[in-house]
Amino acid sequence: MKSLFRPAQPTSPAVLDDHRPIIRSLQRRGLIRGGLSLGALTMLTGCDVSRPAAVEAALRGISTFNDWFQQQLFNPNKLAPTYPASMVLKPPRFNAYYDIMDVKPVDGDTWKLELAGLIDDKTPWKLPQFAALPQQDEVIRHICIEGWDYIGQWSGVPLRDFLRRIGADTRAKYVNFQSADDYPSSLDMATALHPQTILATSYAGEPLAAPFGFPMRLRTSTKLGFKNPKWITAIEVTNTYTPGYWEKAGFGWFSGI
Amino acid sequence: MLLRFCFAGLLLATSAALAQQPAPAGMSLAEAASRRFPQPVRVGALLHRQVLQPAESQPTLGWVRAVVRQGDGSLAVVVAYGGVRGVFAHPIAVPVEAMTLLGQYMEIVDFTPAQLNGFKTFDPAGSQPLAPDDVIRVGLARPSH
Amino acid sequence: MASTPPPKPAATRKLHPVPIRVMHWINAVAMLVMITSGWGIYDDYVIISGLHFSHTFRLGSWAAESLMWHFAGMWFLVLNGLAYLIYGVFTGRFRERLLPIRIGELVQTVKDTLHFHIAHEDLTHYNAVQKLLYIVVIVAGISQVVTGLAIWKPVQLSFLVPLFGGFQGARIVHFWGMVVIVGFLVVHVALAVLVPRTIWAMLAGGPRVGDRPRANKVTP
């Protein structure tokens, strides 16, 4: 059956012939534009307001491809190197998108972890409930996107154990985090289920100190530092992508190491 | 979008320029230090640390030589200061409240190099070095860039 | 230092065939992108205390943009570089143009250069210093890719990291690889500007040269 969206009479080829010069000129302009954006590659100055949208789109496209490529490269069974406890930096290195004096400590007594999304039991969790679960201790390297690194000793409940316990749909794509310092974060499910991804509550055998995310932060051995939200207040299991704090500013989402 | 990045970048650059967080005007060194969430750290873990200036190019000010308790009871970090890569450096005593921990480094956040140049060479007489196993508390900083 | 040059075979091909020219200019752009975006990434955690690259020379107004450029440029650099290496090995271009390097010739060229006797009448022949510089920059390029992988994927490709003495070691080698390449670039561009025919040759192909005397080269 003929589509209702098609005209009854086909368009005369003469129309195309009549407008051929215009079409050609448009195609030429496309080429010129392409040439201009290639030229822009060589404009190596920093903040260039005149940078064509084409370059921006290309960079974003490759960044998205890189996210996909890194997901293919990610081996869910590959463990990050671990180190002797003697190499642990005490205290760990502080970092946030704001200064140390602006850290707002979280009260562990009133703190609770909210659950949302594709989870069977969404009852919020309190701190002592986590202490009652089996803990995992790991001495792993923290690598910041800025280039610095240190070895830290983190312990807490493995995220995959927790997700199973609360009946999360582990076939979902993302595990999202909310935090007390308004630092949303998005993790792929494969990384959330990695054996070295933990909901850390202690560092070097002591409860986490306030500036490092007390009472709970994420520590995953296979991501750059900024993918480890501190002061976690909520976990959501979802198939909808929500960019995290730094992803909104331009860092790559996957950021695996 | 990239334009927005530019603004984000500028904002970051602006906030980063202030990231060294010296004591705000009218606040004593000790008061400011107490707001940098001082953390326990072994003196032994501080010895030989590189001391940076909280500036974008992260210049080296010196190396930690000792932590001492001075005659008035205050704690100071003895820093081999100045010279070229530690050669011809002279020790100066910097109040621990004016310093921060930045990962494996220390920073002097409350004195500029010009002020540090005016510090007199540290005289060990009348001060007591702390043992490597002693634990002191030092405030934190985030990267300055 | 051959005493009598062999009779020149019929000149049928250009000094720089089309694939070489295309790959050269792709590499030129990719290298500039990698170097200048790399400076933007470097600045967040400097390797040489006090050394900081000015915003003027950085590609990307801050680290996230520089990283975007770096992780886009890497594909062009790696794929183009791979094609260049395969081409160079399989067509015999590397063997023909970059080998052999004789120590005597190397010393003589350095001496000549110090006395400002720089011979560049013959574009088709690289002197020993040129050959060495090209080999050094190719090795530096390969090293940049390997150290780059160690920095990018220190967990998935964790076997690479100890080769450079750890994660920071890989960053330091990556930094010095950049220094070597920038050093090469300064000399390379300065010579090209001094002898503009070389630039034209890399655009149009240059003088015609004889076929490769393959029979001579495969003898053991």
Give a short overview.
Chain A has helices at 13-18, 20-41, 53-73, 127-131, 159-165, 189-192, 245-249; strands spanning 112-117, 125-126, 136-143, 149-158, 174-179, 185-188, 197-203, 206-207, 217-220, 232-238.
Model description:
The complex is a heterotrimer of chains A (257), B (145) and C (220). Chain A is built from 7 helices and 10 strands. With 257 residues, chain A is of the alpha+beta class. Chain A has 2 domains: 61 residues, no CATH class; 165 residues, Alpha-Beta Complex (Sulfite Oxidase, Chain A, domain 2), CATH 3.90.420.10. By secondary structure, chain B is of the alpha+beta class. Chain B has one domain: SH3 type barrels, CATH 2.30.30. In chain B, strands 1, 2, 3, 4, 5, 6, 7, 8 and 9 form a 9-stranded mixed sheet that branches. The radius of gyration of chain B is 16 Å and the shape is globular. In chain C, helix 1 packs antiparallel against helix 2, helix 5 runs antiparallel to helix 6 and helix 6 crosses helix 7. Chains in contact: A-B, A-C, B-C. At the B-C interface, helix 1 of B face loops of C.
For this entry, give a set of tags.
heterotrimer; A: 257 residues; alpha+beta; Sulfite Oxidase, Chain A, domain 2; five-stranded mixed β-sheet; five-stranded antiparallel β-sheet; 22% strand; C: 220 residues; mainly alpha; Fumarate Reductase Cytochrome B subunit; two-stranded antiparallel ribbon; 8 helices; globular; disordered C terminus
